[in-house]
Amino acid sequence: MATTTSPERQGTEAAPAATPVRPARWRNARNRDRLLAAVTPLVLLGIWEVLVRIGALDARFFPAPSSIFGRMVDMVSSGELWTQTWASLQRLFLGFWLGLIPGLVLGAVMGLSRPVRAALSPLVSGTYPIPKSALLPLILLVFGLGEMSKIVMVAIGVFYPVVLNTTAGVLQIQPMYYDVAKNFGAKRLQVFRTVALPGAMPSIMTGIELGAGLGLILIAIAEMVGAQSGLGFMIWNAWQLYSVDTMYVGLLVIAVIGYAMSLVLGWVARLVTPWRTDR
Amino acid sequence: MIDQHASSPVAPAQEITVSVRGLLKQFPAKDRTVTALDSLDLDIPRGQFFVIVGPSGCGKTTLLRILARLEEASAGRVEVHGSAEGRPENSMVFQGDSIFPWMTVWDNASYGLRMRGVPAADIRETVGHYLAKTGLTQFSDCYPHQLSGGMRQRVSIARAFANDPDVLLMDEPFSALDEQNKTLLQGELLRIWDETRKTVVFITHSVDEAVTLGDRIMVMTAHPGRAKAFFDVPFERPRDVLELRQRPEYGEMVYDIWQHLRDEVDHSQAATRPPERRRWFRR
Ligand SMILES: Nc1ncnc2c1ncn2[C@@H]1O[C@H](COP(=O)(O)OP(=O)(O)OP(=O)(O)O)[C@@H](O)[C@H]1O
Ligand SMILES: [Mg+2]
């Protein structure tokens, strides 16, 4: 046969897809996006500071950024901020895994097994709409005022989105992929590892991201009631002592934790789902 | 059937790889059973490129899925005689996009070998060979979304060939491609196939494709699917796709087969239209 190179291959050789080439314009746009993202908050803080100084904003409710920052420096040097942050981070970390692992396992089993799904999905979907914060008194009753009640609150927050998204993720996999696996001789565990898990992974990561966000909300709430440490406690305590600066410091740290969490999880998602284009 | 190309359903004495006798396949529907395949007999000798043509919905995919053991026959016998221990019985190129979006080209093409636990060195050699043959070597590390439709179909073909089965089952592998890509891939397929001359069961609804590729062609009836006529394709191998299509004998053969198929296509459209309309009112 005389045909040697296809037009399709000639066309793609110019820019091998193996090393994606990004146009310069695209890179510039991305740098500009980053710059804008950093500048906007700084400008707003500047305006805030000015408004407080000229008396347009009530400093009792909206203390100037400079005084919040001053308070933060004090709290850092006294070590207090770190103590409270560390207490919250520990609970978040433990609660995250306590919710994640059962959520993943149960979600996968529910996705793969129709009887298990039939037995458990009414239970899961039925309890899901209960506001998790409304469970706090019950959790305090069962697990006491110690660490466990806070960890469990975080775990509940992580569990639901993970279990629901894992089930949905496994279910939306096209049946054809299971046929392919079977036709190419994959055994049960191989089918799970090569089809069910990667097929559900994008959805699982969405569940984890939602769960982590919910966990952060719940830890703050849980620490406001019956805790002697943590950022939630710090904020609540600041309200009682009327130390508004401290309250803002707490909010700021929580915001930073949330942002860092979403960065880390976004990075993990890109790592475990490298085939996705929309990330 | 008074036809110069038509031939009998039972092939001359040769080593038979695929043997089907009295195959019946019924699907339960709401108020009745749908008969997809009925009293189908088939013998495919080792090394034959066997092509099935038939109107849409006549049961081609169902037949292939039964051969692949992804579906159970309702009655009848289906046998595939293997040639060597440890070699997979069949590998399928599925209708539509079937390569895993979450695996690279390399991981897709090596899938069957990896699942069977073939030594890494052998995998590297075999998969490397078929990726080279399909022109995908430089795309080994790409994910399917980075490929064109034609390239994705090549991966699917490489995956099936690399698995080195006794029988290759192909379900309209080129039907979603444009004319140029189709011709290109038909040529590539013939060249790869010429290396090993594996038994192939190839489904298409293009008569042109059937005559271009096949050694033997089965035309199926619509609803239920039965064997209507068999044709032996006389053209020598290796074939040149474009050269072949210029020949007058090629045109005659295509015309012949169309004569048999035309009634079935008309029939199948007449049979499918009314129920589809009624469905609108029911739901
Ligand atoms: N799982 C199933 N349940 C019920 N009916 C089915 C099922 N699979 C196929 N059928 C029916 O069997 C018949 C044959 O279907 P099949 O998919 O084998 O057709 P086909 O020849 O491959 O068509 P096409 O050329 O459009 O791919 C159709 O009438 C279809 O509705
Ligand atoms: Mg089909």
Short summary:
The complex is a heterodimer of chains A (279) and B (283). Chain A is mainly α and 279 residues long.
Description:
- The complex is a heterodimer of chains A (279) and B (283).
- Chain A contains eleven helices and no strands.
- With 279 residues, chain A is mainly α.
- In chain A, helix 3 (65-78) crosses helix 11 (244-272) and helix 4 (80-112) packs across helix 10 (231-240).
- Mean pLDDT of chain A is 89; it is low at 1-18.
- Chain B is α/β, with parallel strands linked by helices.
- Chain B has a domain at 2-89 and 167-174 and 198-234 and 249-282: P-loop containing nucleotide triphosphate hydrolases (Rossmann fold, 3-Layer(aba) Sandwich), CATH 3.40.50.
- Chain B is 40% helix and 23% strand.
- Chain B has helices spanning 60-67, 105-109, 111-115, 120-133, 149-162, 179-196, 207-213, 241-246, 248-282; strands spanning 6-7, 16-28, 33-45, 49-53, 75-80, 90-93, 167-171, 199-204, 216-220, 227-232.
- In chain B, strand 7, helix 6 and strand 8 form a beta-alpha-beta unit.
- In chain B, helix 4 crosses helix 5 (149-162) and helix 7 packs across helix 9 (248-282).
- Chain B is globular and about 50 Å long.
- The chains are: A mainly alpha (279), B alpha/beta (283).
- Bound molecules: adenosine-5'-triphosphate and magnesium ion.
- Adenosine-5'-triphosphate (ATP) is lined by residues 27, 34, 36, 54, 56-62, 95, 205 of chain B.
- Residues 60-61, 95, 171 of chain B line the site of magnesium ion (MG).
